[in-house]
Write a structure and sequence with these properties.
Radius of gyration: 25 Å
Shape: flat
Strand order of the largest sheet: 1-2
Structural class: mainly alpha
Largest sheet: 2 strands, antiparallel
Distance between the termini: 83 Å
Oligomer: single chain
Number of strands: 2
Order of helices and strands: HEHHEHH
Number of helices: 5
Length: 154
């Protein structure tokens, strides 16, 4: 003998989820009521996660850029760097996106050979040093080249 499911008051064809409402209506009401608080809590949690991760991989395990003689300690200016410039491979293999996921993975792995904390300036300096002159060439498709050539002829 099965127990009959309660019907939602808002949409009788759907099952009851809570407070007499179906799931979509209940979630809409819940989000409308709790979103500002939830958003602030989530933002603070993400900031704490970033602080904890960057401090772990920072100079002397403090919240500081690892570059020689760099004194940057501002959380908004620090980034998590993949030492071997293989972050794109990690994201591709694990299908992870976004900084929060990256921080969580880095915090779980604790791999000092793979990650370090760098400020934005030194992150870009490292990137520019790793590029050789051949990779700085601009590639243009044939269609774009034809379009530009046609416009120049007029």
């Amino acid at each position: 003998m099965s127990i009959p499911k309660k019907q939602a008051v808002c949409h009788p064809a759907l099952a009851h989820y809570g407070k007499g409402l179906c799931r979509p209506c209940y979630m809409k009401q819940y989000i409308r009521k709790n979103f500002p608080h939830h958003h602030e809590v989530r933002r603070q949690w993400c900031k704490d996660l970033k602080r904890k991760t960057l401090a772990l991989y920072g100079k002397n395990k403090t919240l500081q850029c690892c570059w020689h003689d760099c004194l940057i300690t501002d959380l908004d200016m620090l980034t998590l760097d993949h030492k071997n410039d293989d972050g794109f491979l990690e994201r591709k293999e694990s299908k992870m996106t976004g900084s929060v996921v990256t921080y969580r993975v880095a915090l779980a792995k604790i791999d000092f050979e793979k990650y370090q904390t760098l400020c934005w300036n030194h992150q870009w300096k490292k990137r520019l040093k790793s590029l050789d002159s051949s990779s700085l060439c601009v590639t243009v498709s044939e269609n774009t080249l034809k379009s530009v050539t046609n416009k120049l002829q007029y």
